[in-house]
Specification:
The complex is a heterodimer of chains A (about 575) and B (about 290).
Chain A: E1 5-12, H1 17-30, E2 34-41, E3 49-57, E4 68-73, H2 76-81, E5 86-94, E6 111-114, H3 117-124, H4 130-142, H5 147-157, H6 162-182, E7 199-202, H7 203-213, E8 216-221, H8 228-234, E9 244-247, H9 251-263, E10 267-272, H10 274-289, E11 294-300, H11 317-322, E12 331-333, H12 338-355, E13 358-364, H13 365-369, E14 371-374, E15 431-433, H14 447-467, E16 473-476, E17 482-486, H15 490-503, E18 508-512, E19 515-517, H16 523-528, E20 531-536, H17 542-551, E21 556-559, H18 568-579
Parallel strand pairs in A: 1-4, 4-5, 5-6, 8-9, 8-10, 10-11, 11-13, 12-13, 17-18, 17-20, 20-21
Antiparallel strand pairs in A: 1-3, 2-3, 7-14, 12-19, 16-18
Helix pairs in contact in A: 1-5, 3-4, 3-6, 4-6, 5-6, 7-8, 7-12, 9-10, 15-18
Chain B: H1 23-37, E1 45-49, H2 57-60, E2 64-67, H3 73-83, E3 88-94, H4 95-101, H5 103-112, E4 116-122, H6 157-163, E5 168-173, H7 177-189, E6 193-199, H8 211-217, E7 218-220, H9 231-238, E8 244-251, H10 258-261, H11 280-284
Parallel strand pairs in B: 1-2, 1-3, 3-4, 4-6, 5-6, 7-8
Antiparallel strand pairs in B: 5-8
Helix pairs in contact in B: 1-7, 4-5
Amino acid sequence: MHEDLNWAIGGEAGDGIDSTGKIFAQALSRAGRHVYTSKDFASRIRGGYTAYKIRTSVDRVESVVDRLDILIALTERTIEENMGELHDGSVIIYDGERTSMQDVEIPENMIGLDIPLKSLAEDAGGAIMRNVVALGVACEVADFPIENLDASLEKRFKNKGQAIVDNNQKAARLGQEYVAENYDHDYGYDLETTDEDLVLLNGNEAIGMGAIAAGCRFYAGYPITPATSIMEYLTGRIDQYGGKVVQAEDELAAINLALGAARAGARSMTATSGAGIDLMTETFGLVATSETPMVICDVMRAGPSTGMPTKQEQGDLNMLLYGGHGEIDRFVVGPTTVSECFWKTIEAFNLAEKYQIPVFLVSDLALSVTEQTFSPDTFDMDAVEIDRGKVVDEDDIDSWLDEQGRFQPHFPAADGISPRAFPGTTDGAHMTTGLEHDALGRRTEETDVRIEQVEKREQKVKTAKEREDWDYREFGDPDADTLVISWGSNEGAIREAMEYLSEDGFDVRFISVPYLFPRPDLTDEIAEAESTVVIECNSKGQLADLIEHDVLERVDRINKFNGIRFKADELVEDIRNAAEGMEVEQ
Amino acid sequence: MSSEVRFIDFKADKQPTWCPGCGDFGTMNGMMKALAETGNHPDDTYLVAGIGCSGKIGTYMHSYALHGVHGRALPVGIGAKLANPELEVMVAGGDGDGYSIGAGHFVHAVRRNVDMTYVVMDNRIYGLTKGQASPTSREDFETSTSPDGTNMAPINPLALALAAGATFIAQSFSSDSQRHTQIVKEAIEHDGFGLVNCYSPCVTFNDVDTYDYFRDTIVDLEETDHDPTDFDAATEKIMDSDKEYTGVIYQDPDSVPYEQREGLTENMADIPTGAPDDAMDLVREFY
């Protein structure tokens, strides 16, 4: 079991919660400790409550739990919001000098540390540093060497000048000294450091980094939570590799910009959330019918309509599989961890170009905001391979011209894959269209050509099914009676729940599915299990429906759609109940 | 190579299905001539066409081309140009495509000022769907969906472009082949987004904005002392609803295309077979 510490800072939006949390997470990461972060937004009370939560251990951590050991509360509401996660001995750090915090009552079973955060920050050079004072307090409480904080403060503030860095480091020490002098508790924490080399990043950053590694040079997008940080990551970075990010006027333009760049030969991408996919669906059919490679990323949030934009949900699967009028061939790939966000992005670009097809890369809010530590080797750039598929140049274009010397962009090859000639290629000039077309890309309504082209596009999918690995990720006991199936970010929480279950002698086989279409055939696996439970963050059980359709057998379901990701400890009971045929409470 | 290219090289071997007498024939011929006469080659040209009668142009011209989704041709053209600035990008569509369903993209394409040419085949009617009012139809224009007229002022696309910061605004008439070709050539040669609103009469469904009407009404600015670099003079012409002006109405001689401002010169299609050499630097950023 993890010797973990669960830490959080919470307050109002605008209190610098994110950046303070990130500074502490980075300090832990640089000290060789594993980190897994999450973000909270208010559900019970309207307003701007937000929290940055860190789970840290010397071992890898893959999920969040419903437990909070140290809480920096900038508002009284922060304490209320987290009462369910606080426990006997939890430490609450707050500033009793703050007018709104004067009447705060700390439960008797917890340790309240009333620290004049603002006054100490002013002593260090400015009230703005009160969160950093609190970080110094947290270092003392957790017995975490404050020198580790210095490096991440330097990283955060170095572009503002050495004086600012010095002031912040001083502020942290004032907090540390104040609590050491004024309180005499044995908190019982000892955050040891290790020599492990770790990097800290979230799923959206991993997708952005994967895109650059994969040769993506053009990104068009429209700001939308929680996908925007992919665009922000790529901005400035992709330029260094000859690429460009374009902020479009809307998602309709974004996908069409990406389409134009892809037709010109660039590896091209857009990212959005479900509401943006709605708009992009208009052009999606054109992308597929014109056989244009493109990666379209959907970082899912709770829908429908505007739904709950800052909340977790995995509700877009049906749309990604079936969205758009007519029958549209596409692939749907869904990373299940932060590091897989990197590798699946690269794979999505290769699939898109090899099969000249749009690929939906589906992530979710939980992956997008989770910052997690990894060994740098996890992202071994030497292992990245780029396969551009059947691109032809001047030298080999002759073999793809018809008797009249015309290039055939939709030539119905046996494997369904036509040649691709980028604009600028001599003798390759051709058109394509969203209208049904012949091999030359010209409009037709002739029935035999229609049948040939529809079958040709379907053949690409059949070819891909044969040539590619559409395998699942497997964990736990392969002979267990209980089979758990899931997709997306749930993987980490389920794996940790399995550890707890295993300690109680309850073994589980877990299949995490990163390919939604084409997807692995689970018929045998489900036949071998006594009970199958499909876990997903939606109310209808969209993956469960698909699996029932695939294997013609009923499965049990665990669904969560309150906007909050699965947590390891709650899943322990849910999985056991589901496996034993009991109703799972939402 | 460029000197060998003739306008016929931009012609596909598919015969247009436009109605006999349709203005789009002349509009297209002028575009092909302008492309050839400015030294472009079909293999280095990217044509994006919208939806409608005008959108069929992608099928009748020979070049690299995409016939896209209704109203979204401009962002496709911008994407292609930014990905490979060497390409000559031309976008063509109708008044419905550009000023109705694509109006949002129109103003933003104007703003971005990418070096490309946009030819709008403006017939003031929806032709392919057999005669409904378009955004440039007159207020009293009676159609199957506007039996008492539209009761809306027609859009002034040139004013829209001017307000969005256009660097090149021109208007032409499809049946005046020589002038139309010349105006499209100037749009191609302009360093930035070149708008050519081409009167391209619909002989089947529009009996108001006819060849005769345009012949009688058009004032060619080349035959006046109009100075297209004079913003105020251009504004005056654009806002004058009593006349139909052709010619280059406004041109910003200091225009610098977006892709140049952004320092884009490389063909983004050229990428290595693996991650970039220094890609581990991206990982190290996360220490």
